[in-house]
Amino acid sequence: MQTALVHRVCFCVLVVALVLLGTHGSDILNDAHVYRSFASFEVVPDVVDEAPDCWARVSFKSGRQAEGGNRLTPTQIRNPPVVTWNSNERALYTLIMTDPDVPSRDDPRYREFIHWAVGNIPGNDIDRGETMVEYLGAVTPRGTGLHRFVLLVFEHLQKLDFSGEPRISNQCGPVRRYFSTRNFTRKYELTNLYAGNFFQTQYDDYVATLQAQLRECENERSLNELNGARNGTVFGGP
Length: 238
Fold this sequence. Notes:
The protein has a single domain (1-226), classed as PEBP-like (Phosphatidylethanolamine-binding Protein). Helix content is 25%, strand content 21%. The protein has helices spanning 2-28, 34-40, 43-46, 181-187, 205-213, 220-224; strands spanning 54-55, 57-59, 82-84, 92-99, 113-122, 130-133, 147-156, 193-201. The strands form two sheets. It has a six-stranded mixed sheet with strand order 1-8-7-4-5-6, with no helix packed on it. The longest helix is centred in the first third of the chain and has 27 residues, at 2-28. It comes from Anopheles sinensis (Mosquito). It holds the Pfam family PBP. Residues 1-25 form the signal peptide. Belongs to the phosphatidylethanolamine-binding protein family.
């Protein structure tokens, strides 16, 4: 009788543990926690004025996911992630991924550094969107601490004309500085911040490998004319 009771208690504990493990990820990405997470890590107001309505699911080839401020290494995020959200089949979406902590969170004088930008995405099919800025992994310098990497998805009903924006390859580095999420969204009237997520990362050995692959871009000189701090352009800070 006592043995049976012990077994029953152990079984109940096991069931509870499995339930907790099964729901842990969904709890982390509970939409009710979006605003609190964006505010507690100061993504609001450093990057955007308001948090998105819901989480975007961000899954890297390494098997790791963004979980609202968790820590990932540059090695783990070296490849573009799979990003999904509850899309409206009649809408289009524009995605950006930006680092507001350049060169560091304590000294963000180059804020922001744009890592990825894709416009006019039908549904969740990023491959069918219009790539303005090719994905570039973390180039966080040694000794600059943790950087916040913020991924934002904006919903819009009409196709937007991004033909005036520069096309930046994954071999271009410094020209990505001084990007302004606020100026970008104002320019294109992106008022519906539909989904988002973020994580933190800092230097590991892969950063040096990635930096060695970067070269001066053909259009870097013309882009640098835009890249003056706070000059009011998309690549010019607020």
